[in-house]
Amino acid sequence: MRSVKIVTAVITNNEKYLILKRSEKVKSMKCLWGGISGVIEKNETALQRAKIEIFEEIGIKDNQLKLLKSAEKIRIKSPQYKNHEWVVFPFLFEAKNPDIKLNWENSDFMWILVEELKNYPTVPNLAKVLFSLL
């Protein structure tokens, strides 16, 4: 089985959680809601990648973030590819009243209460990742 290590970062502000709608331009999971995710490169830690992805996808700098929690990695089988799994490293960050600037990877964002997540079509196991951080 092919394993790909990725991070998924969730941002919280005022007891709400940021979810992003993946754009039509991304390779997979188009138009589904998710966290801030990216593939971990060879010589970096999962935390380094999470901070890079946060800046790239929503424009929040490291000094505007407070790491609240990281969780144990979660293995998720790909619904798109045979013999493929993601090994997800979850992170929860706080950002106080951030100004969200989306890049091309996402087309929309929402601040939601945790119980509202069920109202959105999400990437596989987003709820599992989020609840591992609460």
What's the total number of strands?
8
CATH evolutionary superfamily: Nucleoside Triphosphate Pyrophosphohydrolase
CATH class: Alpha Beta
Instruction: Give me the strand/helix succession.
Output: EEEEHEEEEH
**How much β-strand is present in the residues?**
35-45%
CATH domain fold name: Nucleoside Triphosphate Pyrophosphohydrolase
Termini, distance in Å? 30 Å
Structural class of the helices, strands and pairings? mainly beta
What is the approximate shape? globular
In the CATH hierarchy, what is the architecture at level 2?
Alpha-Beta Complex
What is the total number of structural domains? 1
What is the helix tally?
2
Mean pLDDT: 93
Gyration radius, to the nearest Å?
Answer: 14 Å
* Biggest sheet record: 8 strands, mixed
Helix % is: 10-25%
The low-confidence parts are none
Overview of this structure, please?
The chain is mostly beta strands and about 130 residues long. It has a single domain, classed as Nucleoside Triphosphate Pyrophosphohydrolase (Alpha-Beta Complex). It has helices at about 45-60, 125-130; strands at about 1-15, 15-20, 35, 35-40, 65-70, 75, 85-95, 105-110. A hairpin with a 2-residue loop joins β1 (about 1-15) and β2. The mean pLDDT is about 95.
